[in-house]
Amino acid sequence: MSRPQPRDSVALMAGYHSPQIDVGVRLNTNESPEMPPSGFAEEVAAAVSEIEWHRYPGRSATELRTEIGKLHGVGPEQVFAANGSNEVLQTLLLTYGGFGRSAAMFEPTYALHSHLSRITGTDVVAGERLADFSLDMDEVERVISDSRPAVTFLCSPNNPTGVVDTEAQIRRTLELVSDVGGILCVDEAYGQFADFSAVDLLGPEVPLVVSRTYSKTWAMAAARLGYVVAPDWVVAELEKVVLPYHLDAMTQIAGTLALRHIDAMYERVARLVEERGRLMAALADLPVDVWPSSSNFVLFRPREHDGGDVWQGLVDRSVLVRNCASWPHLDGCLRVTIGTPAEDDLFLAALTEVLT
Fold it and tell me: Do 303 and 200 reside in the same domain of the chain?
């Protein structure tokens, strides 16, 4: 008896996984190095104690969406929340992508944009960025005009490069997308590190969605909560596709209570920016090429050593960073998350030892 076979597109697919290795210093998944602020866990625990466990959670997550909307100056009808921004992106592709449609992205960029496209049966159209990893607007125009994608992705700040797309670039891309009847998704998972948010470009008839996550600057990776801000008609379509009761009661509570601590979040971002500067200055003294970053991670490439060997050498010294060699155009590159000063010192010491 033969085993049932998955769809051809799935059978040929490699999964998206970040290694989870027992190490002393874990700097590979761009999590916050700090816990949420004092008092947050107690607030969540108190609220969780009042959950009616025999009932389904609020299907529309109205309170959470309302509070997120206040953060961005919109109503709850313009907010869609899900289990991490990855579920948000998957729902977007299930709604607007699929068989006979395509999604465009510009490599190197966040690997889940292409991975989720393929999972949902959406053709992938990949353009290329310039040598400094900034957007090539001629290439953006070519890809969108030629392929007429249903969904176009920009990631700003871009993962794994740390580059921020300019307001002018995002505006022009939105114009191009509008001309072909598509929708633009600006992935702002690290948006708190940028000076401009595409949320400012939203309008009632503008085909734009902006995704955010609680996993990074909100220090809530364990909660798996993300959301999108979009025109109300987009949110209404997403709600048709997502599974019922998909967002559990505890996640809704944690996400709502976190918004009471916005000042603490921005203080944490400021500390990470300062520590990023210190880490990049130290990397500049080592035999590695370092790219400027506007996020909570830094991309670098060893000049005289194989990137995979350096990655393993760090693991052997109980330090885990991300090996980016599988990303397009990033042979030999590694990405290190900004940690605490103590964690970064251990990383630098281990890297220095591996490179000498």
Answer: no
Q: How far apart are CA 37 and CA 242, in angstroms?
A: 32
Same domain for 169 and 222, yes or no, is yes
CATH code of the domain in which 250 resides: 3.40.640.10
Range of the domain at 15: 8-37+263-355
Burial class, 182, CB count within 10 angstroms (exposed 0-12 / middle 13-18 / buried 19+) = buried
Query: Among 96, 53, 42, which residue's Cα sits nearest to residue 237?
Result: 96
Here the CATH number for the domain that contains residue 345 is 3.90.1150.10
Domain count within the chain: 2
Tell me: do 32 and 104 sit in the same domain. Answer: no
Q: What is the pTM of this model?
A: 0.94
Q: Tens-of-pLDDT digits for all 356 residues of the chain? A: 788 877 776 645 565 567 788 999 999 999 999 999 999 999 999 999 999 999 999 999 999 999 999 999 999 999 999 999 999 999 999 999 999 999 999 999 999 999 999 999 999 999 999 999 999 999 999 999 999 999 999 999 999 999 999 999 999 999 999 999 999 999 999 999 999 999 999 999 999 999 999 999 999 999 999 999 999 999 999 999 999 999 999 999 999 999 999 999 999 999 999 999 999 999 999 999 999 999 999 999 999 999 999 999 999 999 999 999 999 999 999 999 999 999 999 999 999 999 99
Q: How far is CA 293 from CA 46, 169, 194, 279, 330, in A?
A: 39, 18, 10, 11, 15
